[in-house]
């Protein structure tokens, strides 16, 4: 995976795991409990920890039980990866990328 500096592996959707995410740019993947491979949302952010916390507090993506994050060298790289992965995996709660 080019442009990825560091990655987490799949983690339970808990505040303690989210607080370990970097406060840097990257891509994150939200997954359901029924199947870890079932990706329901892919996002990018300039601050992974903050954005993951927002999702947790708002509960705006239903059914999340696991997540993983991928730190990138820039927000531009994160957005490019996000777009590629949305096309590849077609997550349930992402809008289509044009």
What does this structure look like?
The chain has one domain (4-89): 3-Layer(aba) Sandwich (GIY-YIG endonuclease), CATH 3.40.1440. 31% of the residues lie in helices and 30% in strands. The chain has three helices and five strands; from the N terminus they run ββαββαβα. Strands 1, 2, 3, 4 and 5 form a five-stranded antiparallel sheet that branches. A hairpin with a 6-residue loop joins strand 3 (26-32) and strand 4 (39-45). The longest helix is centred in the C-terminal third of the chain and has 15 residues, at 75-89. The chain is globular and about 30 Å long. The protein starts with a strand and ends in a 9-residue tail after the last helix.
Describe, in short, the structure shown.
The chain is an alpha+beta fold and 98 residues long. It has helices at residues 15-18, 48-58, 75-89; strands at 4-7, 11-12, 26-32, 39-45, 64-72. The chain has one domain: GIY-YIG endonuclease, CATH 3.40.1440.10.
Helix-residue proportion: 25-40%
- CATH homologous superfamily title: GIY-YIG endonuclease
Strand content: 25-35%
Strands, total number: 5
Provide keyphrases for this structure.
five-stranded antiparallel beta sheet, GIY-YIG endonuclease, 98 residues, alpha+beta, globular
Write the layout of secondary structure elements.
Layout: E1 4-7, E2 11-12, H1 15-18, E3 26-32, E4 39-45, H2 48-58, E5 64-72, H3 75-89
Antiparallel strand pairs: 1-5, 2-5, 3-4, 3-5
